[in-house]
Amino acid sequence: MIKVTLKEEIRTVAPRFIGAYLEAEVRNCPTPSALWEEIRKAAEDLRDKYDTETIKARPGISATRNAYKAAGKDPSRYRPSCEQLARRILQGKELYSIDLLVDLGNLISLVSGYSVGVIDRDKVEGDTIELGIGCEGEPYEGIGRGPLNIASMPVYRDDRGAFATPTSDSVRTMCSATTRHVLIIINGYDGDTAAVEAAANRASRLLREYGESDGGMVQLIGG
């Protein structure tokens, strides 16, 4: 199983960070109607509890924004994906189904309030990845965003370089219809170990239920 480590620079800007990850064999496919119904219900629940202003106070979102600020990044210009997704729903915009793995990650983010990385494990180079801070001029292409300035942003790196941030996963390691080995990362900048574990365990359950998977094994990052 892959190993995830933290650089000291992350501990400095986000001392309470607790993450979780799992990797599992899976069969990606169009999103089943039952999973989409779970997403619809999660969206309804979000609208019952928050609006576009109060969503920033949700613990996982607030803590991620604070980590960006501490690192020197504007979280309103480079919104964490958990906030982007929530705001889209609260603005009344439609969610579009992509595929099982992407939609599964979105469901976990809606329920937990955390940014969730959904990565094709076979595109990750090496057996150790590291969470650090992005550097000026570091190359990165975000999914649906094109070149992304990841300087002063939390970033996961493999042997080749940056491949995931709380704002956007990279094109290089994105999942596709042919993905058969997924890596899911939960980013808990609020330090709530129980909530992070619950989100990761939910991801494992969903993989078993919908992805013809054994669900993998949940591992914590930090702590």
How would you describe this structure to a colleague?
By secondary structure, this protein is of the alpha+beta class. The chain has a single domain, classed as Phenylalanyl-tRNA Synthetase, Chain B, domain 3 (3-Layer(bba) Sandwich), CATH 3.50.40.10. Helix content is 35%, strand content 21%. It has 6 helices and 10 strands. A 4-stranded mixed sheet has the order 1-4-7-8. Strand 5 and strand 6 form a beta hairpin. Helix 2 runs parallel beside helix 5 and helix 5 runs antiparallel to helix 6. The radius of gyration is 16 Å and the shape is globular. The model has no long low-confidence stretch (mean pLDDT 97).
Topology:
Blueprint: E1 3-6, H1 8-13, E2 18-25, H2 33-49, H3 59-71, H4 81-90, H5 100-112, E3 115-120, E4 128-133, E5 141-142, E6 146-147, E7 154-157, E8 162-164, E9 181-188, H6 193-210, E10 219-222
Parallel strand pairs: 1-4
Antiparallel strand pairs: 2-9, 2-10, 3-9, 4-7, 5-6, 7-8
